[in-house]
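Minutes, project huddle
Topic: does the predicted pose make sense with guanosine-5'-diphosphate bound?
PN asked that the exact inputs be recorded in the minutes so nobody has to dig through chat later. Recorded below.
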Amino acid sequence: MATSRNKNMNAKLVLLGDVGAGKSSLVLRFVKGQFIEFQESTIGAAFFSQTVALNDATVKFEIWDTAGQERYHSLAPMYYRGAAAAIIVYDITNQESFERAKKWVQELQAQGNSNMVMALTGNKADLLDARKVAAEEAQTYAQENGLFFMETSAKTAANVNDVFSEIAKRLPRLQPAQNPSGMVLMDGPAQTPATASCCS
Amino acid sequence: MYGTHSKRDMDIEYQSQVPILRPSIHARRAKITVKFQDLYGFTVEGNVDDVNVLNEVREKVREKGKVWWALEASKGANWYLQTHVSSTLKTSLKFSALVNAITLKKLIRKGIPPVLRPKIWFSLSGAAKKKSTAPDSYYEDLTKAVQDKVTPATKQIDHDLPRTFPGHPWLDTAEGHAALRRVLVAYSFRDSDVGYCQGLNYVAALLLLVMKTEEEAFWMIAVLLENVLVSDCYNKNLSGCHVEQRVFKDLLTKKCPRIVAHLDALEFDVSLVCTEWFLCLFAKSLPSETTLRVWDVLFNEGANLLFHVAMAIFKMNEEELLTVHHVGDVIHIIQRCTHQLFDPDDLLTVAFDQIGFMTTTTISRQRKKQEPAVMAELDQRLRRLNSIKADDEQ
Ligand SMILES: Nc1nc2c(ncn2[C@@H]2O[C@H](COP(=O)(O)OP(=O)(O)O)[C@@H](O)[C@H]2O)c(=O)[nH]1
Ligand SMILES: [Mg+2]
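Predicted holo structure (tokens), as shared on screen:
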């Protein structure tokens, strides 16, 4: 849950999506500014934290990067329970991963809390030649389901910080009035994270 | 030829590669983090104190070896393999087997010398017996028969090979990957309910480093999954693992009520950190020698030991855990502790002496109690997901 003290708040965030969509790479890019090809595989989920500075406040994300084969999905509720935000990731070069992303959206809608801020992220946007999922299709889906949508690349860093700052802006306590939900942001202003820590 | 490659040669290779650890005066002053290789070739990061602890542990391991050699001299070679009190034994032999079993239990809790581990683990865990009921060429035949097959399990295994202890001087080589692949693929065909479950890669990798041969590592995996651990830990919905998590929470609530109350208030579910411990048997969390010390006892005393160790980790950090108020801090404390537990005795002393007694029957009863609840929960989730699918199709 998002908890706030003054203008600084903590927010639990969970990443969900198909194996190989790039969840861990997105987190690594956001938290450490790196991209590594072979990371040690995670059992269950790995925890990270990272603070985003907004104009007059900070949001410290407590990030759960879920991982694992299908059977590990039975553990997912433990990670998304009480989360203030979720990033559902798919790979734009893999149609199946988009279908899997929709399933996650539905699972969250069926039992997550209704205030949860949800982002749909089409990752690997650097691989344009191999694109299988049209941005318009994902955008329409996102709009219909009250998510916001961005395409990202963990490899080039494009839009990665933006997804997190956009979530930060939309969290209930900090949400500015002019931000209608479902708004599509393809390239918002980059926000530099203030501090980083990681323990996985 | 596979299955006969001696890991012992490999260990010796490491030892010779490992530089004598003498941290520089600068590192000592500045409390700089240094990287070094431990007994099993893993690169660990720590400060200079950690290096010193690790050197002390090496020394202790050597000292403990002497006790074992002395006993071998007085009780005869392989005395530790004659601790089974069978009803067919003559009374006098029964008595000596019993004495041996008691002596051995105490000794094992203090640690098996690395050179004796393969032999003792293989026998005490029941792996040797399991192997003896199969044809001699079982592993070789199985490996050959399945080597070119492609299944979801083999795909996942191939994906995980470079991600299992990356950077390790043997595991992360073509030879290491091939050995790990054969063991995991062979097991995936032996038990199709399990197939391959992520987490087993870490367990098998460490077993490969310890056991003399790939074949023995395979039988250790078999006996672990089929006899030592509770059933269904690694099956298609991890139901056994869910049960263990619930049992553990109940036990922790009884033994460390203050911690549990505090973590509950933070909405921190202990499974967030324990799942990995139970599925990797600590291989991914504790330093290698500490993990192997836990396994020494696991193979002799059984799966309940895992609860003792997990509880000890919380217990050791009780005071500090009570002072923090963020989930991130809880995880940080626990992970810092586990990563730095270079001295196995620090952990095992708490696990054996400060947790108190938990009877096997109490724990078994707990498991029985939790099973239906877990099944209901897993079933409910499946039904909810299926009803989503049904809605889709309308
Ligand atoms: N080209 C490209 N590759 C990526 C990107 N993000 C991740 N990858 C690669 O995709 C693979 C899977 O990424 P990973 O983060 O492990 O996926 P996860 O299973 O969702 O955590 C890895 O080989 C990454 O290097 C990206 O933005 N662009
Ligand atoms: Mg990942």
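Observations noted during the meeting:
- The interface with chain A takes residues 156, 159-160, 162-166, 197-199, 201-202, 235-238, 242, 267, 269, 271-272, 275-276, 279-280, 284, 326-328, 331-332, 335-336, 378, 381, 384-385, 388 of chain B (CB under 8 Å).
- Confidence is low (pLDDT under 50) at residues 1-21 of chain B.
No decisions taken; revisit at the next huddle.
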